[in-house]
Every structure is written in C-alpha cells, then in structure tokens.
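The step that takes the researchers longest sounds almost clerical: writing a folded protein down as plain text. Below is the pair of lines this work produces for a single protein:

——
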Amino acid sequence: MSSLFSQNSQPTNYTNHTLTDLSSKRSPLMTNGYSTPLQQKVATALETIEEMSLQTSITEATDAQKILFTQFSYLPLDFDKVQRKLSQGTVTVRSLVTMLKNPEEVYLGSAAGMATGLQVTPQEILRNMIQNGFGDMQVLGVEADEKSGFNAMALKDDNDNIILLYRGTDISTPTSFVKDSLTDVTEFLTEDDEQVQKAEQFYEQYAANSNKVYLFGHSLGGNLTEHVYADHFEHIKDAFVIDPFPISQRQLDTEEKVAAFNNADKFHCYVVGGDWVSELRDTNLYEQNIRYIKNNNSLKDHIMSDHALEMATCKEDGSFELVTKEEAYQNHQHSFSRETIQQVATTGDTIHDFLLK
C-alpha cells in the first residue's frame, strides 16, 4: 500500500483502504461533484480549481477527511502574505494556492514525514482539501510565532462552524524543529509551555464567542488541542486528536475537566497501531476513550513510522478500521513501553538523535 501523497497511486483494492485511497479519489460524500486527475498539479490548474464549488461542512466529514485537516495544519504558507490578504478581504482555502511557500518542492512537514521519506508537495496537500470539498471554507486567521514555534490556522465553513487547526512538531526548518522539540520536552518535564499559552490565546481570538467549535491536532498539535479542550469543553462541539502527545491529569484542576476527556460525544482520540508518542505520559486519563486504528505498514520501517498519519487505515466509507489495543501493538518493531520511552526521553539521547535512530 502506498502513502497518502504518492503521485502515482492508483489503488484497486477497496476492501481495506489506506488514507491514500480516499484522498486520491472522490470522497464517498461527493456523489455528484467533480473529478480531477490525480496527476494534475494545483499550480497549473487554477481554472479547474475555481470550478470546484462543492462545499462539505465539517459536520459531515468522514474520519479520513478529518485526518486531512490535521495534515493541512502542516501546510507551509507565506504567513506574511496570508496576513496581507486577510487585511484586504476574504481568504478561502482554495485561494491559498497563491500563498504557498515553495509550492512544488517536496515537503516533509512533520517529524514522522522526515523519518519515513514522504514525497509530498504543498500543492498536493492543498489539492487534497479542495478535492474533498473544503476549498470554499473561509480562512479566519493564521499564526506563526517565531519565538515559540507555535503554528495554527482558523477556518469557518458555510454553517458558521469554527475549525481550529493546531500544528504538530514541524521539521521544515532546523529552527522550527528545535523550538517544537523544546516544547515537547518542557511539556513532558514541567508542564508549562509558551505554545500552550499561545494555543489558548488563538482560541480566544477566533472561537471564544462560538458554541460551534471543532479542534484538530496531531502529535504536539494534539497536545495543544487537549489543553484548549480542557479549558473550554463546554463550548467545543468536537475535538479530534490523532497520535497526540498526551495531556497529564496533573494539569487539570477540576473534576469537570477530567470527566470531559471521557465524553465520547465530544472528545475523539485515535492512535495508529504501534505509535509510541501517545504513550509518553500516563494516558489513563482517557484510556477508555482511545480508539486504535489498524496500521497499514505502508511506509518504511523507522522509529517514527507508526507516528505518521499516512499509516492510518480507512474503510471504503471513509471511517477508520479500528482494532483492539493488543492488535494495534502487535508486530511493530518500534512499539515501546511507556517506561522505556520515559527513560529515554529524560536521560541520554538528544531528541534529534532519538528520532533518527
């Protein structure tokens, strides 16, 4: 099975889908929409993109489509240009095609991408969103804080739902990788970090007056999502995290916040089989609410392989193929016990060396 962004992927097996299959073909929701050849590049297909008018509300999104939002959070943008465009008028997801940073260069994005050698360009990330019906969503705001490394994006659909996307560890530049890694360490050891504060401020700026808020995050982005959810769960419609660096129960100061993480109608935590990042802390806080996704083993073997979003297996209807925790962690070379990970993270190797092993 190929990765999500393989340009030459033409899957024919519809029994057990990888995310590749569902993102490179029309969504099950798109029964009377449009069709664009997989090989077609966004930069040379602006007229075709403008004709794509199907609008999919976040409330109708499948599991596979929700994963696209977490991937979209890694989109490398010219943030200054986006801010200028926002000050001049409305910006949509599709209009970001003119604001991409190095649109045709292969972009790895996350630490998992670095480790597994994903071949993806910013154009392809954007195209996946447009082809799945999210191109007309309004971009409310973006933030890229150079000091802390914090990155986030706020969107709004036609039903006035607010979607906040929190980016995970970014390795697109050495500086961003170091800053995000420091956040990971700070969260693990001290539970007090500037990116968490930035995530709260981002929520207050774009979603504080709404009761229709949807949160998304992967890895470090999942941790930021959990912090925001804990403080505002009464106003959150849905929090979607996958392979998150988990929040600690020690960081929750009320019983109501603890209970919120076991609300299966609002908080949705998914872990791809074999992922170890989600085991970095005591996850008993919401253990009963974790759902495990079958690992499709489509990427090369590496310590970060199981942390890659592209490892998630989806069914033909766009839902995840779920397995038990025992099944999820069978036969995965880099599946470690929580105790082992904690020992490595607090002694010996640097984070960079640890990721590259």
